[in-house]
Amino acid sequence: MCGIVGILGAKPVALDLVDALRRLEYRGYDSAGVATVENGHLERRRAEGKLRNLETRLQSEPLAGHTGIGHTRWATHGKPTERNAHPHMSGRVSVVHNGIIENYRDLKAELQAKGHVFASDTDTEAVVHLITDEMDAGHGPVEAVRRSLKRLSGAFALGIIFAGHDDLMIAARQGSPLAIGHGKGEMYLGSDAIALAPFTSEITYLEEGDWAVLSRTKIEIFDRNGGAVQRPVTKSIASSLLVDKGNHRHFMAKEIHEQPEVISHTLSHYLDMGEGRVQFPELGIDLSAITRVSISACGTAYYAGLVAKYWIERLARIPVEIDVASEFRYREAPMSPGGLALFVSQSGETADTLATLRYAKANGQRIASVVNVRTSTIARESDAVLPTLAGPEIGVASTKAFTCQLAVLACLSIALGRASGHIDAAKERELVQALVELPRHISVLLRNEHKFEELAHALGKARDVIYLGRGISYPVALEGALKLKEISYIHAEGYAAGELKHGPIALIDENVPVVVVCPKDELFDKTVSNMQEVAARGGQIVMVSNADPDEAGCKVVSHIEMPDVHPFSAPLIYAVPMQLIAYHTAVLMGTDVDQPRNLAKSVTVE
Prior knowledge:
Blueprint: E1 3-8, H1 14-22, E2 31-38, E3 41-48, H2 51-60, E4 67-73, E5 88-89, E6 93-101, H3 104-113, H4 124-136, H5 141-149, E7 154-162, E8 165-174, E9 179-182, E10 187-190, H6 193-196, E11 202-205, E12 211-214, E13 219-222, E14 228-229, E15 234-235, H7 251-257, H8 259-270, E16 271-272, E17 277-278, E18 293-297, H9 299-316, E19 320-324, H10 325-328, E20 340-345, H11 351-362, E21 366-371, H12 377-380, E22 384-387, H13 400-420, H14 425-436, H15 438-446, H16 450-459, E23 464-469, H17 473-488, E24 491-496, E25 513-517, H18 524-536, E26 540-545, E27 558-561, H19 570-589
Parallel strand pairs: 18-19, 18-20, 20-21, 21-22, 23-24, 23-25, 25-26, 26-27
Antiparallel strand pairs: 1-4, 1-10, 2-3, 2-4, 5-6, 6-7, 7-8, 8-12, 9-10, 9-11, 11-15, 12-13, 13-14, 16-17
């Protein structure tokens, strides 16, 4: 997960930038760099690897500027080399960036045609040259950034400084967090309040679509439409915590809103976004030789594995069996030697999953694990580790860890499909592009959070809630029901929509809300028939779909409008409203959202 810091200081800032970046090391990175304004021009120092390498560089080549930006990078576009490390710069502009600029190829081609010369393989450099081009056309820095932001597509956070402007820094946020720190005669910028804790406890959090013009004595904040807005100054306690809630009421809310950023970073670890292909790290496992996959996990991770079953069987035509880890080894499942056993665990310490891993290893399986903690026991005992880059997840009910697990499993499914010969390069590019667009779509969805607050008032009165989904939406429905009961304590069950008439329909009456996960895909009409069965019995339908509710042919009491996305990537984005429905219902009911009763973050007993 990339980290951004910026300082408008009263003394040389380079070493302070490095110290601030060190507080973000928990996010993970593969290169680092800083840039400062030096006597009217821009200077930078960058290094591959850890911050100590950058510090060594600064000792031999110090920077004296009082205005600067710094960055720790997870490689997305381009290898983790010094030439691709941030900050990126032209003679007039220097930029640090978190996220993905989706339309960078078009921008790059346009700018190269105008004579701009690119020095890296990154998407970020397109932003540098776009702003430079606007300044070359006669616009000042602020106007150049304003015009440039309108042309960017994707999820991103930006910190920008300019040659000849020692008292100016511009920040922009779209789908990736940014915080501004207030000092005495100084101003700070950070992707996390933790980075700013040594300097100030007074923090202003930019809201979605905001961009800000900073000087040492004031900030001006504008919304996505260019209108001046005021954002509150809050007191941060990040200095005493490893992780901070930011401007959110609960860690769970913060982690839901972090998903555009962390999904971007997870995808960047497994995709060559420039080439539109999966670029898996060396696993020591021959994917083309795999004839069967066994998946095992618990809770939310099990539902991630269930989505993967649909993906792998469809894309690679490889049979997949999936089990709840606590049951797998007790049924003494026969396992053909040389098969792939895949284990999914947020903590990497889940006792049932670990026990099943050892059973599979004893039965001659190749072991791969999807974990968020690379030093965990499950990771250490695996032949191949597929890390999620979700960062620390504090809320007990998993949100960003789940969607990052899905991101990893989606990439694995594409890799298996390619290795098995069932998808060609064109299909791979199509699927990769669908994943790359996800952070932007999730950012848009999170802007309409008020709709979920309204829905919570209806769900909060219910004793029972039913979730329905068909095909790959079935595991999403299961996850939605789990989330609601975990944190609101309302009884909820998820069912395959086709199973409704085989028992659950007996529960339907006018007091039972039914949440239907129904993207407009090849199974939409089948799901509509189940919605009509619910409506005929007075059930209160909550339709989560990109289709018009009139297409349901029955009364829909609430419609959660979803963006149009590729069917392959739909589970990742449809997971988000499941989280928001549960979160806002729990808040309304006054439960302990982050630490619900009877639950633990890491279950280390059977």
